[in-house]
Amino acid sequence: MNSNGSSHFYSDLTEYRQSISKLMQKEELFADIPSDWHVVLTDILDSTQSIDSGNHEVVNLIATGSIIAVLNIAHDAKISIPFFLEETEPHY
Q1: Distance CA 69, CA 45 (A)
Q2: What are the C-alpha distances in Å from 77 to residues 32, 42, 69, 71?
Q3: Using an 8 Å Cβ cutoff, are 33 and 39 in contact?
Q4: What is the pLDDT of residues 40-66, one digit of tens each?
Q5: Residue in 47, 49, 48, 82 with CA at minimum distance from that of residue 65
Q6: What is the rounded CA–CA span in Å between residue 88 and residue 54?
């Protein structure tokens, strides 16, 4: 896959119908992300334990906060996110 074409990245991916454990063992099935993309990873410390203790709402709140923080940083840096573009004309 050409990683320079970000406009059709997801639609150009091949669909595999294997278990995730099988897929994770096959590096050749992975694709590089487009060169103009950024990836942000977050981890909530002890989230599994917190969920098991009944604190799933707190974990969800923290996860939502991390998404909002990234969106705010992207907005301030003038990075467009295709899923959140403001539309000037309605699509019918």
Answers
A1: 17
A2: 24, 19, 12, 10
A3: yes
A4: 888 999 999 999 999 999 999 999 999
A5: 47
A6: 43
